[in-house]
Queue: 2 jobs
Job 1
Amino acid sequence: SQELEQSPQSLIVQEGKNLTINCTSSKTLYGLYWYKQKYGEGLIFLMMLQKGGEEKSHEKITAKLDEKKQQSSLHITASQPSHAGIYLCGADILGSGTYKYIFGTGTRLKVLA
Amino acid sequence: NAGVTQTPKFRILKIGQSMTLQCTQDMNHNYMYWYRQDPGMGLKLIYYSVGAGITDKGEVPNGYNVSRSTTEDFPLRLELAAPSQTSVYFCASTNHQPGSPLHFGNGTRLTVT
């Protein structure tokens, strides 16, 4: 079973539209990270959330972590073709007494010009 | 500042062959991770290490082995390559201090035929 669920799996939007990607876990997230990956390339760190209720923004991207620290959303305002790629949420999940980073299934975003 | 370096970038293996994917980091990070990413999918954790001499299984460890004899190096070994291991492999590291994300290598694209 997937410990981190992302939705939707894929998204196609018209340039200028807003969109939201969700990341959900049944376990408490000790740190929630959002990454972007351009097709065929490595991962780029976007932002990190640690506290329940925390919200961060960078340019047109806003990420929130809910109070229970089990769900995060990534919101893009006025999307542009440069936003296209795969968005991945990653989290610290306590395992075997240490922290292991796991990732969600990813959301493929296409932005039509 | 090199960060996380993976070699090779590309490799084609025949079924049953073995190989080692190299990963080294120069940031003195304790935590290191190996992930695989299948086409259009998110990242699956193979193995991770919280320090020299300590390794632990992730979500998909079967068919792989790792070792961590030094802080800098975390090689991933495939003993008997199978077509199911065709994937892109990413190595990552972190010092796991609050607010610090994973630092990723550029990936190794492996094809097993």
Job 2
Amino acid sequence: AQSVTQLDSQVPVFEEAPVELRCNYSSSVSVYLFWYVQYPNQGLQLLLKYLSGSTLVKGINGFEAEFNKSQTSFHLRKPSVHISDTAEYFCAVSGILFRYSSASKIIFGSGTRLSIRP
Amino acid sequence: DTEVTQTPKHLVMGMTNKKSLKCEQHMGHRAMYWYKQKAKKPPELMFVYSYEKLSINESVPSRFSPECPNSSLLNLHLHALQPEDSALYLCASSHVQGAGGGEKLFFGSGTQLSVL
């Protein structure tokens, strides 16, 4: 079974400061990892995903994440945040599901609320 | 068109009412999903349809009844709900691929449901 742990429920940051949102996963099989963002009163939007290959993944809006297999982590980073980055960020995992072979079963972490202070 | 459209955006219903939530996409996706999201919590998977057939039911109570009438539409029929069912209901869609997942989910904005 797969699981995802987001270590911080809230992260306050000043505008233009760097930020890191932490995510650790647990799985006995190969996994795919995602970061989704949810702005207030909206659905979720994919920021980036890791399937294979380079461990540094670049996404939209200047975000990037690094897959670290030895530490089972997939932390999200941005070098300089803006007020518009205020949102809930969800780390997610999906894996090889032999029973469910034709659709994705994605499990979300508990979320990290990023609040940007001017 | 890269949108998933959900209607209505807000719904208030009594415990004896019957209502339906609707979801539509025109991206040619053959996998569609219903998620339930309580305030300040992550989305929880309820149902997955693949090629218009129900492939995952996460032990959801029978008062929630999904329906996929065609490849573009997904409905969630509601009957005799409880106040604890109040939540944001999100629809999503994705391309279908073989075992392994990894597909990007496209989410609608959700229906905010209140059960009185």
